[in-house]
Amino acid sequence: MGGMRQAISQVPRARANPYNARITLEPWMSTTRYSVAQLAERFALEFRGDGTRVIDGVGTLAGAGPSQLSFLSNSKYAGQLAATHAGVVVLNREAAENCPTAALIARDPYVAYAHIAALFERLPAATPGAHPSAVIAPSARVSPSASVGPHCVIEEGAVVEEGAVLGSHCIIGQDCVVGAQSRLVARVTLVKRVTLGKRVLVHPGAVIGSDGFGLAFDRDHWVKLPQLGGVRIGDDCEIGANTTIDCGALEDTVLEEDVRLDNQIQIAHNVYIGAHTAMAGCAAVAGSAKIGRYCMIGGNAGVLGHLEVADRVTITAKSLVTHSIREAGEYSSGVPLQENRQWRRNAARFKHLDEYARRLSALEKDKK
Amino acid sequence: MGGMRQAISQVPRARANPYNARITLEPWMSTTRYSVAQLAERFALEFRGDGTRVIDGVGTLAGAGPSQLSFLSNSKYAGQLAATHAGVVVLNREAAENCPTAALIARDPYVAYAHIAALFERLPAATPGAHPSAVIAPSARVSPSASVGPHCVIEEGAVVEEGAVLGSHCIIGQDCVVGAQSRLVARVTLVKRVTLGKRVLVHPGAVIGSDGFGLAFDRDHWVKLPQLGGVRIGDDCEIGANTTIDCGALEDTVLEEDVRLDNQIQIAHNVYIGAHTAMAGCAAVAGSAKIGRYCMIGGNAGVLGHLEVADRVTITAKSLVTHSIREAGEYSSGVPLQENRQWRRNAARFKHLDEYARRLSALEKDKK
Amino acid sequence: MGGMRQAISQVPRARANPYNARITLEPWMSTTRYSVAQLAERFALEFRGDGTRVIDGVGTLAGAGPSQLSFLSNSKYAGQLAATHAGVVVLNREAAENCPTAALIARDPYVAYAHIAALFERLPAATPGAHPSAVIAPSARVSPSASVGPHCVIEEGAVVEEGAVLGSHCIIGQDCVVGAQSRLVARVTLVKRVTLGKRVLVHPGAVIGSDGFGLAFDRDHWVKLPQLGGVRIGDDCEIGANTTIDCGALEDTVLEEDVRLDNQIQIAHNVYIGAHTAMAGCAAVAGSAKIGRYCMIGGNAGVLGHLEVADRVTITAKSLVTHSIREAGEYSSGVPLQENRQWRRNAARFKHLDEYARRLSALEKDKK
């Protein structure tokens, strides 16, 4: 759902009874509108061209119309600039030379666009108070300014802080804390001993605080290790749809601030993830691994348990980290995609790679 | 839950009050029965043997009894035909020569079996109307012939078309559309701006229309890119359990008609998937990738962002597509499974493959 | 949530009305306390040191305080023993020589710790009866000793046996059975024809009994194969968060007893998993594969369809099983992680591995 900024021109419709029988969420009723000059002032950008032009939305260079703002940050799309019908384009000073319409000049057009676009996001209004179908334990503390959607369940000892928004079907388990201004879009489960910082955004289907996978093998069967820790998630983190984060076995699983997790990521018990690290969809981190700050973990990449990964490490998609990484840099594993018949021939040879290396050495020795 | 066909002999039990306090779904109360001759006529198949035999279910060649229909489509199972106790077997003309029981002869026995078996599926009845525990926004439009299960939430501006079935705990977010005759089995979340075509089948835990993973790095922290597009899903698509499909950043994420997604698949923002493409469990497609028609993507295979994959491409399980594919065909990556000690030796050599290739070239050069 | 054992000293607070409007779950109100001597007697362990010391919790060697129990099972942590502040440590006879505090001596300290720690797990109390917001079909049978949480839905013909606990938002589909003392933590969906044995533990977001992915290709489009089987899960199994297990096409998908599945695992239709097999997060097993007993499947490993894997096979993380495995042992695939530029050079050479092998053979032939 994204940024928490609210446009000053957005006015939620007043309602006498925000939660009558069949109302859930109330959309913004007005449309956001800014002139190009207003945008320039608000975001401290220089503008060129018609500052009075009114902008009410955003679009791609190819798709935006005269009342929409677009951006150019990737030179790959520079060819589309000449033909754009956008009302205004965010771009850097050099590209602005060739801009056929109004321009907003930014050092980093992508970042500037991200800030501006948040103005035009139509977030569902979050009416303070709890929907009557929500089930809230007596010992739970819910801020009067928080919004609790239909069919939510808030268990004993849980805390929902000011301005937090729980969409439909969220479960806030025993002793969990939802920090101020956090937004659980819908159907999020905080199982137990989970603390979310401020402005945390969690997408549907995420499960945080489920049991870690801890087992001891007792002769002929498994014995479960109770998972007695919790999960601590820092301010400004984002957790994707159907992502799972297990509670720690004894101490907590931790995400520092501004960690960004895409969908279907699995974070095992006692993992520690440094601030500003981002992981793409389907990545997985095994128990007690410690990931540094400002790391980028590619889609479906994996990190084995008990390893350490330094700050500013990039792991490319589908790679498996099998040893600790001590130095910043980019790391990969895997083999290239090939047409299947060619691939089969090469893959079959892989099974003999050690033998080939020995034979190569033997030939070299013979030669001498 | 499968096909939407209803057997003419299935008669739901009449009920005065379909949604009294504790009723959710009403099962079919009668049993489906067809004679072999009726099946032959209904599906335009030739039959051999006793056409009056009554069939009330389906089973495997090894497991079916005299009132059950089985099929033989894979020659691997031909040896089981002689000993089958099935009442009738669907098979091709050649195999029918050796069939010890009644036979239904089909050009493609697997397809014919799929159609026939749908007759015997006992789908939960879908009583029109909404369960009293459902929460429906005033501006939502729900067809009187649609069925809305317990604890569903339908938000402002959403539309549920005729004959659509929402099982328990579905959330239909703002401005989403559920097309006619679509079935959301249970606990499906359409977050926002999602349009499902007709006869779309969505399994539990699926999340459609969650935010795409779009971030801009601003010096020392992430800024979220608002995800302002939607998701459009064509007619006859099927979406597996716990699969996630993100909304587009500016334009829509699109699945054309008859796309079939298995469980736990991740489809990122602005992906475009052509008609009749099927993906097996745990596959993942990164942002803005464009997959052709009639593709088959294997289990846990991945496609990197912004790539294009032509029509009729097959990707084998766990492969990673790292470049665009322009030609139909089968593509793979990965190395073969080996006993661990052997594998370790070969894998260690992989780290020096470039060096070996150079040494090989040097030897060849020396020889000349 | 873990072990089902209850400490004798735990006394749930009596309540007149266990489910008044806003109560969901009632926490244990007393604290669990045992003396070291009591623990020794209860678990048949020898103790050394002060048997009267009172223990009320568990912790790591580094983190535990004087009223907490810790353990030493991995010699890697032996260095922490001397400095521990734990009240008592579970360890083996040899390590006990150097224990600076009370000691509980166990043949397998990890297993002994697992049993002891379960005493100190604070499970939410499970009040018998159904929360008023639960929707239960008239033909469902729910044991009076079972606990049904807020917003659960129990469909026609379903059975919930004695002492079973359904947390909030569980859906028990038509004809499903939840065995005695099983615990569905929250938001678990049993779709249809699912039978759970006794003491099965299922974590949030799991979907069991969803349709298998069965399709027949009919000239130019897909035809769905109805999925008419069920799922049978044995006693003492554990199913992780957001894990999916499909129902069988004709016969059942089966997990024998004490199978342990971590989070986000995908089990396709008609898979059969032998007793005591454990799988780590994000593993996936394709249709009709048969996995033996006492296997260990690593994180994100995959098993292709229709294969057989013998008893006591270990598959390392991210490996793909592409052929049946007939012998116990450890198996792997994949290539090692490297710094990206080095990796690129080696990976590019992989595309020519077959050619290199031929050139190597040619050189050897020349030499003779």
UniProtKB/TrEMBL annotation, chains A, B, C:
- Alphabetized Pfam families for the sequence: Hexapep, Hexapep_2, LpxD
Q: Which SUPFAM superfamilies match?
A: Trimeric LpxA-like enzymes
Q: Locate the UDP-3-O-[3-hydroxymyristoyl] glucosamine N-acyltransferase non-repeat region domain: which residues?
A: 53-119
Q: In which pathway does it act?
A: Bacterial outer membrane biogenesis; LPS lipid A biosynthesis
**Keywords, in A-Z order:** Acyltransferase, Lipid A biosynthesis, Lipid biosynthesis, Lipid metabolism, Repeat, Transferase
| Active site per the UniProt annotation | H269
Kindly report, in one word, the top-level EC class recorded for this enzyme: transferase
Reaction(s) catalysed (UniProt annotation): a UDP-3-O-[(3R)-3-hydroxyacyl]-alpha-D-glucosamine + a (3R)-hydroxyacyl-[ACP] = a UDP-2-N,3-O-bis[(3R)-3-hydroxyacyl]-alpha-D-glucosamine + holo-[ACP] + H(+)
Query: What Enzyme Commission number does this protein have?
Result: 2.3.1.191
PANTHER family cross-referenced by the UniProt entry: UDP-3-O-ACYLGLUCOSAMINE N-ACYLTRANSFERASE, UDP-3-O-ACYLGLUCOSAMINE N-ACYLTRANSFERASE 1, MITOCHONDRIAL-RELATED
Q: What quaternary structure, including any partners, is listed in this protein's UniProt entry?
A: Homotrimer.
Name the family the entry cites: Belongs to the transferase hexapeptide repeat family. LpxD subfamily.
Function, as annotated: Catalyzes the N-acylation of UDP-3-O-acylglucosamine using 3-hydroxyacyl-ACP as the acyl donor. Is involved in the biosynthesis of lipid A, a phosphorylated glycolipid that anchors the lipopolysaccharide to the outer membrane of the cell.
Query: What NCBIfam families does this protein map onto?
Result: lipid_A_lpxD, PRK00892.1
* Stated name of the protein: UDP-3-O-acylglucosamine N-acyltransferase
